Amino acid sequence: MYGRYVALGDSQTEGLGDGDDLRGHRGWADRLAEVLAGANPELRYANLAVRGKLAGQIRDEQLPAALALRPDLATVMAGMNDLIRPGFDAARVAQALEEMFAALTSAGARVVSVTFPDIGAIMPLARPLLPRVLALNARIRDAAARHGVTLVDTFGMRFVEDARMWSPDRLHASPEGHARIAASVAHALELPGSDGTWSDPFPLLPAAPAWRTAAEQARWLGAFAGPWVGRRLRGRSSGDGRTAKRPLLTPVDQSTPGTSSAS
What we know:
By secondary structure, the protein is of the alpha/beta class.
């Protein structure tokens, strides 16, 4: 039974796609904390994730804080922001991940991490990035095996490529996607009540006409891809000026999902 859970990562772990900046973001890590608190009401949970962060930044900025919190459970999700940028180096990203794995497991934490999906199946313009995904996933698997890290490896599972897993920006999970990620980690940890239904395929939908697919692609380019490219050209990140939403270990308020009470 876990008592001190710390989540490290970027926007996915912060919870983007599951809520908004006004009401707050819930996300898979908050959802997992709620499951953990159901088994242990004394659970304390911290979420150090900040959107836009690269793997090396997560190691440098979040790992020291995580170690100071002395977690018995930690989740590490990092590397997607590196993968979609020019100059990607799978070995460098994997080294940052492995250093986090080594430090957290050496401190006595159970560590859970993930591999990444074929993002080209989610965003057609990203199809050329498949070799990057394969290279990074192979290194993550090796690093996890070396350090006894529990790995949720969904690459190649068809449900992950379903549009219903993803928010309109196609980078962040939808509420249903976040729920499935949380369920996958709960299952990997063998938490009470968890099972393998998180990997069930979505019900089939009628095929969309070509014109609708083209229109959606055009909307995505204008609403999401364009602004992202603009930030890169200006040397900006979506995480500039932001701090962790939950930097301290605090109880999980089961009456209001995604919130905490004072410790």
